[in-house]
Amino acid sequence: MPFMTHQTEQFQDDVAAGPGGAMTDEVGVVTGDLTVHTSQRPDGRADVRVQYTGADERYTLTGSPCPVPLADLKALHQTVLAAIRSGGGAHVPG
Length: 94
Known about the structure:
The protein is α+β, with helices and mostly antiparallel strands. The protein has one helix spanning 73-86; strands at residues 10-16, 22-24, 28-30, 33-40, 45-52, 59-60, 66-67.
């Protein structure tokens, strides 16, 4: 019997964290060059994870999972990137 898979909408970008970096649930503040992953969950919320660019381990950005404003995952991702560029222990805006 055939089966179907659900493609999850997701975005990924590299960003340089501003002074004070980004706050994660697992390791606290991360700084420097980061890769941000924002993906849609089946429940309609979004997961936002960060990693040091080129590293394997990803960390949950504090505030994730979060609602997707106006069902626009790309806008959420862009907002998160802007927050991390600003630094100050950035977390998922909301």
